[in-house]
Every structure is written in structure tokens, then in C-alpha cells.
Design the sequence.
């Protein structure tokens, strides 16, 4: 099935094929950017908004609302656009999503992973998933980036439909994590725990996450990573600890604190992303 860009595509309609919607989205992106192929996709989470500037010049900016299957941004500090960015002078292009759809928005799992599937349909072979999150390690002060080594998906949902038993061993590419640590040797790694949200955890839930082996708590990324693996994308996950998780410090949690930590960390995180993206795909 192929759709035209004028078809009304509702990812929640079970008769609609999400991969065909991703193909339709990729076709619009190709037409608007004049680029038939993107190489690397990035999803910018909370606190990461300003970091993409260092990757290279923006060639095209597209409103999410113009692309089949995409919804408007629902979170303050996220931009509802995607950009085609030249990766330095390599001739390669990055597809940079300024926002994501979260599972807690209730638009369904297909909407959550649509950007990932669109990246794969646009030719990307790598995706960098970033997020803002709470940290369990008190040494990770707000503004500390941490590589995601593995995850616990506590949403009880999956983006995969039907009997497709996708292997998630090494979901977060050891090769890309090593590359990131080569760029920024001080980077720690951790296990990211996705809760449904949108409320933050109780202190008891944070203790539970710790007992289960978690290091970072957030509301995104795991469903996207699973869909990325199913699509054959190599995944790099980077969390920005924007706050200590509930009960780890005596400070109350606020979204303002999240945005502030992002501002403070923009330099380090921007340089990290730019250097990693410049080296991805270079053999
Ligand atoms: I930014 O402490 C951010 N997102 N679940 N917990 C969860 N999500 C978050 C947090 C946090 N901080």
C-alpha cells in the first residue's frame, strides 16, 4: 500500500499500515529537502534543544504538521519542526527531530515511534536518541550526559505488532558507545528506566528502579529504541541528567529545572553530538 501526502493518515486506525505512513512521510521529507537520502537521525529530548547547531548548517526546516503521521509538539521547550542538517563538509545529511511524541500523550505507540520509522524510510542507518531524565547516582549533578547502556521498559507496551521476536541484545550499540567515549572520555554509562509518566516517580518507585538495576529514570526512548532495532537502525542513546530522581535529593522536581540544566549543558552536549555524528559512518 502506498499513500499520497494528501491522504488522511491516522496511525491509530488499525487498517493503516504504519510502515506505509513512514514511507509517505519520507517521501514528503525527500521532496521538501531535495535530498533523497539522510544518513543519521537525531531525536532531541528535553535539554537537548540547542545542541544540534554545532552539527552543521540547517539546509531545510519542515513543520512536523506538514509531514504525514507527525503531531505537533506537546512539551514546552521542544520545537515542532524537523531539520535537514549538513554534517560538516562530509556530504552526508542528518535528519534532526526537534521534538518527540511521548507515550504518556496517549496517541498510541505507533505515533511514539513514527519518527524512528520515518528515519529508516529516509535511508538513515543510525539514530541518536537523546532525552532529559532523572539520575539515581548522586554524583551525576544536573547537566551530566550519560550514555544508555541498556534499558528497562516499564510501560508494558511494545511498538512491535504481530509475532516478530526482535532480539534486543546489544540494543544500544557498543560500537557507538565506544565512539562517544572516545570523543568524551569522562562519559559514564547507565541503565535507563522508562516509566509511563507524565508524573515523576515517587521516592519508592525510584528505590524500586534502583533495586531493578536502573540508573536513570525517564518517560521516553525505550519504545523508540525497540522500533529502531526492528527497522535495522544502529542506536546510540544519550541521557542528560537534568535532575536527581525523586528522593535522591531533597529538592522538589520541576520542568524549569530541566530547561535550566539543558542550558548549562548545551556546550558539552552539543560538542559531543557534533563530534559523534561527524564520525558515524566514517570508516
Ligand atoms: I527531564 O526524574 C526528566 N524526565 N520519569 N523522572 C522521569 N522522567 C523525567 C525525569 C524524572 N526528569
Sequence:
Amino acid at each position: 500500500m502506498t499513500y499520497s501526502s494528501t491522504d488522511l493518515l491516522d496511525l491509530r486506525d488499525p487498517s493503516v499500515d504504519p510502515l506505509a505512513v513512514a514511507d509517505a512521510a519520507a517521501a514528503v521529507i525527500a521532496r521538501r529537502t531535495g535530498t533523497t537520502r539522510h544518513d543519521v537521525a537525531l531525536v532531541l529530548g528535553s535539554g537537548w534543544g540547542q545542541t544540534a547547531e554545532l552539527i552543521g548548517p540547517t539546509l531545510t526546516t519542515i513543520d512536523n504538521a506538514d509531514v504525514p503521521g507527525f503531531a505537533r509538539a506537546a512539551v514546552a521547550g521542544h520545537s515542532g519542526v524537523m531539520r535537514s542538517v549538513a554534517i560538516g563538509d562530509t556530504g552526508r545529511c542528518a535528519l534532526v527531530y526537534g521534538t518527540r511524541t511521548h507515550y504518556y500523550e496517549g496517541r498510541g505507540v505507533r505515533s511514539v515511534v513514527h519518527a524512528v520509522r520515518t528515519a529508516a524510510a529516509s535511508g538513515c542507518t543510525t539514530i541518536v536518541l537523546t532525552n532529559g531524565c532523572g539520575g539515581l547516582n548522586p554524583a551525576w549533578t544536573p547537566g551530566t550526559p550519560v550514555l544508555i547502556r541498556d534499558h528497562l521498559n516499564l510501560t508494558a507496551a511494545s511498538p512491535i505488532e504481530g509475532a516478530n521476536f526482535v532480539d534486543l541484545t546489544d540494543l544500544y550499540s557498543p560500537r557507538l558507545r565506544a565512539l562517544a567515549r572516545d570523543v568524551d572520555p569522562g562519559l559514564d554509562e547507565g541503565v535507563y528506566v522508562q516509566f509511563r509518566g507524565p508524573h515523576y516517580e515517587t521516592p519508592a518507585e525510584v528505590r524500586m528502579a534502583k533495586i531493578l538495576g536502573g540508573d536513570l529514570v525517564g518517560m521516553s526512548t525505550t519504545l523508540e529504541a525497540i522500533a529502531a532495532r526492528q527497522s535495522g537502525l544502529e542506536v546510540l542513546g544519550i541521557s542528560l541528567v537534568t535532575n536527581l530522581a525523586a528522593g535522591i535529593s531533597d529538592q522538589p522536581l520541576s520542568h524549569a529545572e530541566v530547561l535550566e540544566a539543558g542550558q548549562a549543558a548545551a556546550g558539552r552536549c552539543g560538542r559531543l553530538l557534533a563530534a559523534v555524528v561527524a564520525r558515524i559512518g566514517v570508516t
Q: What stands out?
A: Residues 125 and 233 are 5 Å apart (CA to CA). Residues 18-279 form a domain with the Rossmann fold fold (CATH 3.40.50.1580).
